[in-house]
Amino acid sequence: MTTNVLSSYEVDVEDVEYLRHGDKPLLARLYKPRGAGPFPLIVDLHGGAWCRSDRLEDAPIDQPLAKSGVVVASLDFRMPPDTGYPGSVADIHYAVRWLKTRATELRSRPSMVGALGVSSGGQHAMILGMRPNDPRYAALPLAGADASLRCVVLCWPVIDPLGRYQYAKKLKAGGAPYPELVDRVLPCHDQYWGTEDAMAEGSPTRALERGERVQAPPVLYLQGTKDQAHPRPDLDRFVAGYRKAGGKVDLHLFEGEGEAFIKKNPNSANSLAALDRIIEFVHAELE
């Protein structure tokens, strides 16, 4: 299965308001294939260390996925200073339910919904996939649907926020020169999480290691072998823990690639191969 074979749909794009906090609307960018459907529906959660970026960030992934015949809803959600953890997860939880209540008009079905998360958005996607019934995440009322996910796609996720925080602090303590990512991510960890205890509590990896009872939707996990921003030991711990808990993880490591390689060079061989894996996985799990 290749993107060339599947990239056959014309796609309509529009922004819709899915939630409002006071006078601040939260928008979803909808990528809607033209056709009868029903199409799988993927909720896309952008990265940016929980503090930056917006619903437009993942267009290099969202557009080819939509062209393959998938409705994609790429979300804005609250970030610091408006909220920290778990406020953004509550926005996303609401959005999943909101989209399910509108799935038919989007030419999808409530039973065909998964999530894709990039970097810090991967932490959002995975913790929601594991804890769809957490009352903190379900704090914004909306009847008619639940927030369970049929599958989760992880693109170089911050799969253990505390592990990444400690890794970055250790690099900084070693003195210059250190990777630029250190000064980019450390302030955002502090702004969003507030405490190391919160980072540990919201960590998918550590939730598994604590033995939490979690849901375990199938996972596709993509990362480059030279990704300095997302420590490999955290990946290995998550994959081992998820499989031990009975979950399925389809892991693909891309030789020589750093963070965000699909978005930085979307036409490279590795990026095209990664997009193929995403498209193949979503259609296999949601159709």
Can you put this structure into words, describing what you see?
The protein contains 11 helices and 8 strands. Helix 5 (161-173) crosses helix 6. The chain has an 8-stranded mixed sheet, with helices on both faces. Helices cover 39% and strands 18% of the residues. It has helices spanning 3-6, 59-67, 87-101, 120-130, 161-173, 181-193, 196-201, 204-209, 232-244, 261-264, 269-286, and strands spanning 11-21, 24-33, 41-45, 71-75, 113-118, 152-155, 219-224, 249-254. Helix 4 links the parallel strand 5 and strand 6. By secondary structure, it is an alpha/beta fold.
Describe the secondary structure blueprint for this structure:
Elements: H1 3-6, E1 11-21, E2 24-33, E3 41-45, H2 59-67, E4 71-75, H3 87-101, E5 113-118, H4 120-130, E6 152-155, H5 161-173, H6 181-193, H7 196-201, H8 204-209, E7 219-224, H9 232-244, E8 249-254, H10 261-264, H11 269-286
Parallel strand pairs: 3-4, 3-5, 5-6, 6-7, 7-8
Antiparallel strand pairs: 1-2, 2-4
Helix pairs in contact: 5-6
Indicate the mean pLDDT. 94
Give the helix/strand class.
alpha/beta
**Strand order within the widest beta sheet:** 1-2-4-3-5-6-7-8
Q: Note the beta-strand portion.
A: 15-25%
Encode the helix/strand succession as letters. Answer: HEEEHEHEHEHHHHEHEHH
Shape: globular
Helices, by number, come to 11
- What distance separates the N and C termini? 15 Å
Helix proportion of residues, in percent? 25-40%
Q: Let me know the number of strands.
A: 8
Low-confidence regions: 1-5
Largest sheet data: 8 strands, mixed
Radius of gyration: 18 Å
